From TrEMBL:
Pfam families xrefs: ThiF
Protein name: THIF-type NAD/FAD binding fold domain-containing protein
Residues in THIF-type NAD/FAD binding fold domain copies: 211-462
InterPro entries for the chain: ThiF_NAD_FAD-bd, Ubiquitin-activating_enz
Gene Ontology molecular-function annotations: ubiquitin-like modifier activating enzyme activity
Length: 494
């Protein structure tokens, strides 16, 4: 298999927990006219398709079996046209994300997915997806279809859960680490696994959103924004900050649900500003690292920061700016975490339990490589797309041959490239939980927000219905700066 493509970041087997013995597969996606004609149904069908089509190694083809002549609702996604037959537009969106879809032999496995009630097509594995208000469902049993309004949150929850179950089946999750679910509802309003649909409060016709700063427009940030795009009644102002100089890359597309092949090479923040032009969400883009933005725009300091960054150096920089509130959404492998931080004494901060990594010097990396066998070095070189002979030449005299291996390449050998295993449905779920918490705060629902002893929600996809998928507490680290008199004096002055 080639490297650095759409499926690269999720290809690893996570130390034997996953494998590829059921891939590639064919997916059959179906729904009744009554379901597919609703806005909730289209939000679910689109986001589910969006996530499935990014599973490049796992899924070779997707057959959409929907009744013909269903018009698309406006504002479903910037990746599909705003008018036309919904089924045809799904095909356009799939092609824009993964043009290789359908070109690979997909005879190994068939997965059937039905949105809403009804019969499943014959397949090796079948799943149902459903949504109701703030809650979404996945499982092998039918579930009620009870959309009471056009809230996209439950639909997006269901899409992420269902894409996760399809992935786990196709990658044959090891039973010691995870299991398939028969039926799981998750309520994004109460942030809990529940035994049935939870509608939550009905959304009003107009939602004035809280002004916020979005730090990071990558996997989690793009999912957060995609959900906001699906809320036509929302009006808000956001500052989007992302200083990734490479912009949107092909290997990002397995989890960047707001972007497609047309966006490759574009800066993330500027790209989303253009996407949202004409909507109720006004985005001011800053194609800068957080540190550079703070230094050059000191008057734009924020009340609420939505942290979607992927490393602790960036988290420390955000905390150092002393925002009043921080909502931090993050992922690790098949796990999601959302934590609410408040700038008050005796409250945890974004630095707590997020230590800075120990950065190896170039000399330490070189010495480590020189201590390995030539066979191990050759294997590592191929993994990092380096010619083994060039690596050997460099290691014989690093000073003389310094141009052969750059500092960026050395950091990859040190395990510091930052390109950890990741998959789209996990990032999407994190972005949806962040959007749900943002929406609750915009609606003024203080009782249900994450704070105090219930300031964190953790969710893992290994066993979706597990008791550990619940609201819990992120405590203050007694060794953190926020426990010091210096910090307490600093926040009193803000």
């Amino acid at each position: 298999m080639t490297r650095n493509d759409l499926g690269d970041r999720q290809r690893d087997d996570l130390k034997g927990r996953l494998n590829h013995d059921r891939t590639p597969a064919r997916v059959i996606l179906t729904a009744s006219r009554d379901v597919a004609a609703t806005r909730t149904g289209q939000n679910l069908l689109w986001m589910l398709t969006n996530l499935l089509v990014r599973q490049q190694d796992e899924i070779a083809s997707i057959e959409v079996r929907l009744p013909a002549g269903i018009p698309v609702h406006p504002g479903i996604s910037p990746l599909i046209p705003p008018e036309g037959d919904f089924t045809e537009l799904l095909g356009i969106g799939m092609c824009r994300i993964n043009p290789q879809l359908g070109t690979i032999n997909s005879g190994l496995t068939t997965v059937a997915i039905r949105v809403g009630p009804g019969a499943l097509p014959e397949a090796n594995y079948g799943l149902y997806a459903s949504a109701a208000g703030w809650s979404g469902y996945t499982g092998t049993h039918e579930a009620a279809w009870l959309p009471t309004d056009e809230n996209p949150i439950g639909a997006y929850v269901a899409a992420a859960l269902t894409a996760g179950e399809a992935f786990k089946f196709l990658r044959s999750v090891h039973p010691e680490y995870g299991e398939m679910t028969d039926a799981t509802w998750f309520d994004a309003h109460g942030m809990a696994v529940v035994d049935g649909p939870r509608l939550g409060p009905q959304l009003p016709e107009a939602i004035p959103g809280v002004t916020a700063t979005l730090a990071g427009v990558g996997a989690v940030g793009s999912a957060f924004l995609h959900l906001l795009y699906a809320l036509p009644q929302l009006t808000t102002t956001l500052t989007a900050i992302d200083g990734d100089q490479k912009g949107i890359e092909l290997s990002n597309l397995n989890r960047y649900v707001l972007f497609c092949q047309d966006d490759l090479g574009q800066p993330k923040a500027s790209r989303v500003q253009k996407m949202f032009e004409g909507s109720g969400v006004t985005i001011t883009s800053r194609d800068l690292l957080w540190q550079d933005w703070i230094a050059t725009h000191p008057t734009e300091l924020m009340d609420l920061v939505l942290s979607c960054v992927d490393n602790n150096m960036a988290r420390h920089a955000i905390q150092d700016a002393l925002p009043r509130y921080i909502l931090s959404a993050s992922t690790f492998e098949l796990r999601v975490q959302l934590v609410a931080f408040k700038r008050e004494e005796d409250e945890a901060c974004l630095r707590c339990y997020n230590p800075l990594p120990k950065v190896k010097s170039d000399d330490e990396v070189i010495a480590g490589l020189q201590a390995q066998s030539s066979e191990a070095r050759a294997e590592a070189a191929l993994e990092h797309q380096v010619v083994p002979e060039q690596l050997e030449t460099y290691l014989r005299d690093p000073q003389k041959h310094c141009g052969l291996i750059t500092g960026d390449i050395l950091r990859k050998f040190a395990g510091q490239s930052g390109e950890e295993w990741s998959v789209g449905f996990v990032s999407a779920f994190a972005g949806v939980l962040l959007a749900a918490e943002y929406l609750k705060r915009s609606l003024g629902e203080c009782a249900e927000r994450l704070e105090g002893l219930g300031n964190m929600i953790r969710f893992q996809f290994w066993i979706p219905g597990a008791a550990v998928n619940e609201v819990t507490h992120w405590p203050q680290d007694p060794k953190c700066l926020c426990s010091s008199a210096f910090y307490r004096a600093a926040i009193r002055k803000v």
